[in-house]
Amino acid sequence: MTQPRRSRPPRLHGRAAGVVLAGGSGTRVGAGINKAFLSLAGRSIAAWGLNTLAAVEGIGLLVFVVRPEDLEHARFVDSRETDWPLEIITGGETRQESELFALRHLADRIDSGAVDTVLIHDAARPLVSHGLVSAVLHAARETGGAVPGIPADDIAAAGPGDSLAAGPDGHRGALVRVQTPQGFHAATILDAYEAAARDGFVGTDTASCAEEYTDIPVTWVRGEETNFKITYAQDLLLAQDVVSALGLRSG
């Protein structure tokens, strides 16, 4: 027997769009399905990030980007696990192509001004906090682009020969482990992705495309150790431990 769709509270008004990418597989986790749809404390991994973004004031809509073969899983997440309706679309062959498809999906609303900022997040980072999403959104609106990151004290950039790269003051510059969500002025990042598509440029993440095709300063806000990406089976076990230790709940 089909269960009735859950009633949902009305959406908060906001001109930012949250995009959540779930284009990976479960191969390295050791699962037979996309890892975004594995269970974490009673809800799918993807539902955690989606619900967190939905709860941030200023985010007015959510776009969920999935592989064609995962559409049924995504519809289940939409109808049973998230607090707000999702706009579900299928992605491309690469992360960048999936981001481009999401931006094109929003293009009319970006052009009209209904969407002014876009935050792009990995579904495989389920434990991103409300505070971090809010901080990235605020910084993106202030400067045009923002990413969260963790200072990587155990990594140094290689310089010429056998030396380590140093900054202008003679000290090694800080390196940052970049996380998501990454937020950008919507019209600017849409134009950047269209230019990258014309040139065949493929970046490592949203920020790399912004740095290549825009003049906006991409600033960083301090990320969170708990905002790690689930890649291997031990990462999912760690996420379960974090949820239990902190008493977290999705939504």
UniProtKB/TrEMBL annotation:
InterPro entries: IspD/TarI, IspD/TarI_cytidylyltransf_bact, ISPD_synthase_CS, Nucleotide-diphossugar_trans. It holds the Pfam family IspD. The chain crosses the membrane at residues 12-33, 45-66. Keywords: Membrane, Nucleotidyltransferase, Transferase, Transmembrane, Transmembrane helix. The keyword Transferase applies. GO terms for biological process: isoprenoid biosynthetic process. One of its GO terms (molecular function) is 2-C-methyl-D-erythritol 4-phosphate cytidylyltransferase activity. The keyword Transmembrane applies. This is 4-diphosphocytidyl-2-methyl-D-erythritol synthase. It comes from Brachybacterium faecium (strain ATCC 43885 / DSM 4810 / JCM 11609 / LMG 19847 / NBRC 14762 / NCIMB 9860 / 6-10).
